[in-house]
Amino acid sequence: MNSWLKHPLRVTGRLVWLGGELFLAALNYAIYCAACQRDSLRSARAVWLQNTSRRLLRVFRIETQFTGDIPSSGLLVCNHLSYLDILVLSALAPCVFVAKREVKHWPVLGWFAKKAGTVFVHRQLRAQATQTVDKIEAALQTGALVVLFPEGTSSGGESILPFKSSLLEPAARQTHPLAAGFLRYELNDGDVSEEVCYWKDMTLVPHLINLCSKRAVQASVHFNHLREGNADRKQLARQLHAEVLRMKHAVAI
Predict the structure, then answer these.
(1) Percent of the residues in the chain that have a pLDDT greater than 90, as a whole number
(2) Which domains can be identified in the chain, with CATH numbers?
């Protein structure tokens, strides 16, 4: 709460703005998505998420830049730093996300994720992996862009965690476009790993309040389309990890 005391007008104003945007998002969902036919619901949700994310980025003063061609379909594999990753990536292109099951129960953001058509993964039950892969494949078959964070959790950005291969089966079949992404944040008035990244045992509401106290956050995304994948999903996981790591080192240089 120290951030609120230091910048009371900034934090209060942004929280009120955030509440208004979330109310508008719920209203727009009811207008544009609730009555959609099943075959058009996925694309309607993705466009709704994109429009809402673009407005929410303004609330948090997140300025986004990108390099490379933004993928429009297929599977996008990216490193994972924060819940802000969802806003940054979906603002660039309509997409469907794959997220851990716990996100469904987060305050506010859980509702947001469910309405966006997120594919939830129960990581403790390996028996459900096949069902999750089938859902990812179904989304890919519709021509959607599906975003997967194969690290399995977020990090502070110092390193790229090993990629889990269990959900890469659709990509290993090599029937859909495949791209890798590297996402990073910069913050002039704070510590990115502690105040932008959401990891360890952080709690959502205090993190959000502190984020609202920041003047601005710079986000950058680097994309690279892979011409060839690998039919072995474990080998593919290592290949994608190496590509994201290569982009991280290139950005550092």
Answers:
(1) 75
(2) 2-252 (3.40.1130)
